[in-house]
Amino acid sequence: MKIVIPADRPKYERELPGGFDLTLSPILKTDREFFERGIEELSVESRFARFGQGVSNLSAQELDYLSDVDQRSHVAWGALVGDEAAGVGRYITTGDPTKAEIALTVLDSMQRRGVGRALFEALIAVARHDGIHEFAFEARSDNEAVVSLMAEIEVAPLMTDGVIERTIRLSDLPTATHDGALVEVIEEVRSQKESSS
């Protein structure tokens, strides 16, 4: 699915391993249509891994939830490889503002390129800036992308009944050279949201 990002939209661009051009941009309310169309780009297996069922479309309420985020307690980034939609990463703080639940979705055609890792790093950068100390997540144990990412960051999966449940302390993860730039992008979006409300 081709996407054109307006030139004035806050974004961060970098190169992925393999020479792919990646653009990361915080999700905006105007991105709702991309979620609506993007569900079609996921295999049944990927839909099940992300939503717990093989959904074929999203309700209006689900689309609003995924796209109308405050970028403070619910932070979400979209990823493009070239001009093609690639994935979304998000975290949502729980009752404890130092903890958040994380979710990553990478379109089937964009997997194994480093998109999930890039989204994960963007979420870590913003979470650290915002005082979040832990990410929690659940994934099916046959989710190879999650298992691979956990091995890459040297976190052992804890599996129960075919489900990986894990809490990751952000202090255990290395910082990245682009953390500051990613925080600048999210702060620009936050500032725009505040000035428009």
Explain what this protein looks like in three dimensions.
The protein has 197 residues and is α+β, with helices and mostly antiparallel strands. The chain has a single domain (12-196), classed as Gcn5-related N-acetyltransferase (GNAT) (Aminopeptidase, 3-Layer(aba) Sandwich), CATH 3.40.630.30. The protein has helices spanning 32-38, 44-51, 60-67, 115-129, 144-152, 179-196, and strands spanning 12-15, 21-26, 74-81, 84-93, 99-106, 134-140, 159-160, 163-169. It has an 8-stranded mixed sheet with strand order 1-2-3-4-5-6-8-7.
Number of helices: 6
Q: Give the distance, in angstroms, between the N- and C-terminal Cα atoms.
A: 31 Å
Tell me, rounded to a whole number, the average pLDDT: 83
Q: Which sequence of strands runs across the widest sheet?
A: 1-2-3-4-5-6-8-7
Number of domains: 1
pLDDT < 50 runs, ≥5 residues: none
Structural class by sheet pairing and helices:
alpha+beta
Strand share of the residues? 25-35%
Largest sheet, in brief, is: 8 strands, mixed
Q: What does the radius of gyration come to?
A: 16 Å
CATH topology: Aminopeptidase
Summarize the entry for a quick read.
This protein is 33% helix and 26% strand. The protein has helices at 32-38, 44-51, 60-67, 115-129, 144-152, 179-196, and strands spanning 12-15, 21-26, 74-81, 84-93, 99-106, 134-140, 159-160, 163-169. It has an eight-stranded mixed β-sheet with strand order 1-2-3-4-5-6-8-7.
